Every structure is written in structure tokens, then in C-alpha cells.
Amino acid sequence: MKSQILAIATFATISFHQTTLAANSEHIRQLLASKQCQNCDLSGAGLIMADLSNANLKGANLTGANLSRANLSGADLTGADLSGAGLFGVNLSGAKLNGAILIGTDLRNTYLVNAELTGVNLNGANLQGAFGIPLQIAKPEAFYAWGVAEAQKGNQQRALEYFSQAIAAKPDFAGAYLARAVARYQLFDRQGAFQDAQIAKKFFTNQNDRDGIQTTQALIKELQTPQTAKLDRGKPSLMDFLESLTSVLLQFMPF
Prior knowledge:
Pectate Lyase C-like; mainly alpha; 2 domains; elongated
């Protein structure tokens, strides 16, 4: 996971430096003045925190551009080339990205609620921490991996949301139910954790996964143990459970 992210970051950095001098300065002025720049050459442009809401960027060349934390809500990026571009923290809510090229694009922490992403090329794109990722553009295993990454950082609520998306995309994803059960346990939702653990056990049983069954049974036992008997044991850790589940859960990680 870390090596994959590093490779993406390196690719994006190289792309940025290679195209820094290629941006058409007149096109940049036109975009900032009118928000109308269809088929413009904005490769390598520095547009950090720019207000480009509802901008017309159809077919624009934004390869290697730095748009970190820009506002692109409602923008039309149909067919735009954003290969290697930096969109960290960008607001893309309601944006049209149909047919856009997002190869190696940094989409970390972007806001994608209601964004149109039909036919996009996301090969090598980094979506870690993005909000509102449509189910159709990512595999269940990817949502699962992002959930684990968030859990490692202590962001249990975000982890739970990713595990839920993994389950929505793959309803019999036993590992995601188990991981979500632990995340819910950490958020003190014992009832929800118990329900997820029971479902995980059912799917592991259907899949004849002995390791999964045993680990889920251990979690269920933990959940059934009276809280008074665990006052001095500290808060449960998702990674403690994951480490004990190496042979079961790591198979879902996208290496």
C-alpha cells in the first residue's frame, strides 16, 4: 500500500516538473477572469486554492497542474486530461468528469459527492481519504484497504464509512464485516459491532474459512464479555485484530 502511494506521488511529481513551463499564460488569465477555458492548455499550471466553481474546462489539458484545495464544484471537466495533476483536497462536488483522464492523479481528500465520473480513466490515481467515492469507480478491496489505512491513523469513523462502502459493493465481504465490527467496537457501538460480527461469521462459515470463523468467534466472545471485567484492559485496537488476522485479511489488500 505504502509503495503504491509512493509510486503515484513520484509519478505525479515528475509529471509536474516536466510540464511546469508548458502552461499557456494567456489561457490561465482567461480561465481566472472568465472561468471559460474549453480545450485550453493549462498543463503544469499553478492553480492552488483557485475559485473555479462552475468553470468550463471541457477538453482542457491539465496534465501536471497543481490544483490543490481549489474549488471546482460544478465545473465541467468532460474529457479533460488531468494526468499526474495534484488535486489534493479539491472540492469536486457536482463536477462533470465524464471521459476525463485521471491517470496518476492525486485525488486524496477530494470531495466527490454527486460528481459525474462515467468513463474516467483512474489508473494509478490516489483516492485515499476522498469523500463520496462512487461505488462503480473502485473495487471493494480498495475501499477495504482505505478503511484499514484510516483505522491505522485512528480515524475510526472514516474507516467505518469505507468498510460500509466495501460491503455495499460486495455484500458477502466477510472481512469487511469483521473489520467494521471492530471499528464499531472502538466507537463504543457494541450492538452494531455484535451484529456485524455475527454476519461476518455467517459469511466466513459459508466460505469455509476456518481462520475467519475462529477470529470472528474470538471477537464475539470479546463483545459478550461484561465490560466490568475489562476495565483495566484499555481500548481495543483494530490493528491488534488485523495483526491476528494476517492470513485472512491481507488477502483483501490490493498489492
